[in-house]
Amino acid sequence: GLWNLIRFQSQSGDFTHPSLADRLTFSFNYSRVESETTTQDGGFVRTRPLTGQATYSANLGLFYNGDRHGISLLWRDFGPRLSGLGLGTLEDVYENPPAQLDFTWRWYLGRGFTVRFVGQNLLDRTVLYTQGDVVVRSWDPGRELSLALGWTLR
């Protein structure tokens, strides 16, 4: 099957490659958090989540580690989180962080040299702050791309 050794016939006989399953790693985690605190503002008593606490977080990773190349693809997502308290009858302000996708590629050149390309926030989505259904603030974190040459003494 796909996850077993892949065999090729050549003129000189069998040639065996390491299994794809030996080189691929997959990771996933999900956390759901329910937090609550009670506050009082004048005559208003409110129960709300803790400030800055996302309702969930999810991470997904796919990694390939070959003889000459290494690749990672990471996706992460967070639920809304309380950013500011609404006073009186005003609703609270929530940060709505977008999902993020990151990519890293490493090329092992030999003799201790490595080329590394990193792309962060490839989806380039805007972070929104909402108060009820109204967007009260937004910002664009932008994409980040880098290329580096490294050398390790051995």
What's the order of the H and E elements? Answer: EEHEEEEEEEEEEEE
The main sheet comes to:
6 strands, antiparallel
Strand-residue proportion: over 45%
Mean pLDDT: 87
Uncertain residue ranges: 1-16
Radius of gyration: 24 Å
Structural class: mainly beta
Q: How far do the termini sit from each other? A: 39 Å
Work out the helicity level: under 10%
Largest sheet, spatial ordering of strands: 3-6-7-10-11-14
**Tell me, what's the shape?**
elongated
Quick one: how many beta strands?
A: 14
Q: How many helices?
A: 1
What are the main properties of this structure?
4-stranded antiparallel β-sheet; about 5% helix; 6-stranded antiparallel β-sheet; elongated
Structure summary:
By secondary structure, the chain is an all-beta fold. Helices cover 3% and strands 62% of the residues. The protein is built from one helix and 14 strands, in the order E-E-H-E-E-E-E-E-E-E-E-E-E-E-E.
Would you write up a description of this structure?
This protein has 154 residues and is mainly beta. The protein is built from 1 helix and 14 strands, in the order ββαββββββββββββ. The chain has a 6-stranded antiparallel β-sheet with strand order 3-6-7-10-11-14. Mean pLDDT is 87; it is low at 1-16.
